[in-house]
């Protein structure tokens, strides 16, 4: 259950990171409310995951999911560059996430 909470927390991190772009400096009330709700949910689920996972592992995976998801969203939806170097860096982050998962009880 802790891993599910952590994965959901990471996905909500993607939602709020992307949502920040659409708040337009927190001037759009609905986008702002949704972004703040995603932030609260993300941190809340991270807190639940920390009950059963080491801090360093959980935090690194949480931010890794958020980073990779946000970059992929930017590439797919916002036409951000998808250079070989950029994709290689994403692959290294994913490798780190998998490595941490495999080395955590």
Automatic annotation (TrEMBL):
The keyword Translocase does not apply. The keyword Transport applies. Its main location: membrane. It is a multi-pass membrane protein. Pfam families: Multi_Drug_Res. The chain crosses the membrane at residues 33-50, 57-78, 84-103. It comes from the Bacteria. This is Guanidinium exporter. It comes from Duganella qianjiadongensis.
């Amino acid at each position: 259950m802790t891993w599910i909470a952590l994965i959901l927390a990471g996905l909500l991190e993607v939602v709020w990171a992307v949502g920040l772009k659409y708040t337009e400096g927190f001037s759009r009330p609905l986008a702002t409310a949704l972004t703040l709700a995603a932030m609260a949910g993300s941190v809340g689920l991270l807190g639940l995951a920390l009950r059963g996972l080491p801090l360093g592992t959980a935090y690194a995976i949480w931010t890794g999911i958020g980073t990779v998801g946000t970059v992929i969203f930017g590439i797919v939806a916002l036409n951000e560059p998808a250079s070989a170097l950029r994709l290689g860096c994403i692959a290294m982050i994913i490798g780190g996430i998998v490595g941490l998962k495999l080395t955590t009880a």
